[in-house]
Amino acid sequence: MAPLTRRKLLAGGVPLLGAGAAVLHGAVPHQHPWEGDAHAAEGMSGADGMHAGHDSGGHASFRDGRTVDHAANGFDPHEVVRDFDWGTTRRMPSGRVVREWELVATDREIEIAPGVRFAAWTYNGRVPGPTLRAREGELLRISFVNGSEHPHTIHFHGIHPAEMDGVPGVGAGQIEPGGRTVYEFDALPAGVHLYHCHVRPLAEHIAKGLHGAFIIDPKDGREEADELVLVMNGFDTNFDRANEFYAANTIGFAYMDRPIEVKRDELVRVYLINALEFDLINSFHLHGNLFHYFPTGTSKEPSELTDTVMLCQGQRGILEWRFPHPGRFMFHAHQSEFTELGWQGFFEVGG
Ligand SMILES: [Cu+2]
Fold first, then answer.
1. How many Å lie between the centroid of ligand 1 and the Cα of residue 121?
2. pTM for the full model?
3. Which residues in the chain come in under a pLDDT of 50?
4. Could you please report the per-residue DSSP string of 299-327?
5. What distance separates the 2 farthest-apart alpha carbons in the chain?
6. What's the pLDDT tens digit per position in 204-255?
7. From ligand 1's centre to the CA of 208, what distance in Å?
8. Among 160, 175, 276, 278, which is disulfide-ready with 179 (CB 3.0 to 4.6 Å)?
9. Distance 217 CA to ligand 1 centre (A)
């Protein structure tokens, strides 16, 4: 029997209404990627018996309660969400601050869902890569070491000279395995940006894990807040250029299993980035509240007060709100398909 992928299921003419809804409803629980054709994909093992938890009666998760071994991965989405890497600084004679990081590309297998191994390409061993954070106007110096078996670069969004753009054929160009280079530019403009590899095939290099958040604070800062970073991404585990798993910060359902704790009435600021490949858009939806949205974080005036934003690949923004009510509030992609395949979580608002 030909394998039925979720793409074929959605694109293959299965009617979504009436009698067809029953077909879809019946088919979906048996066609989760971790038990269907994806199962045979190289590098996947130990995924037997996995089901999304909407079969389980509880909240969506993985049925038997197993969770990803974050310690073995070497990164934990609960730490990633509040982990801002300010690098190291020194002051030049002129008084200007130079901020420096070292980013090393490595090939390593990570567990993206319980029992599902993915041969990732990483910056500093994690997906997403470290959240690099600087202040507007500083001089930034990023040493890039390619410890991977494939050529890579780091392409930063923001304003910089052409030779620092991290694309093949310009400046240092493509960095071969064992090679290194230094990217140096001014921290401009203030906002939430991203960085990613820019070697072809581009979608694969980004989707394998070579992407991360890059935040530049305005010179006069922002209002004190509980700050979070959510990098929306996904994983194509069977190499069909469609994602089988979706998440914010790589591990699907991680914030369902363990909600992100925030305080009532405290300002919450989310740096939201869409690093998803193979799907044209992604989105963020907040329950029980609305947020101010600052596209790319480049203006201090919000463009909108809303509860849902849609982002194309590479789009990003800042979200700000306060929870007036305690309790558990969901956040998730408003494409239900993405939600069911991992991209959902809870905020736990303490009284
Ligand atoms: Cu690459």
1. 8
2. 0.85
3. 1-4, 7-58
4. -SS-SEEESEEEEETT-EEEEEE--SS-E
5. 74
6. 999 999 999 999 999 999 999 999 999 999 999 999 999 999 999 999 999 9
7. 8
8. 175
9. 27
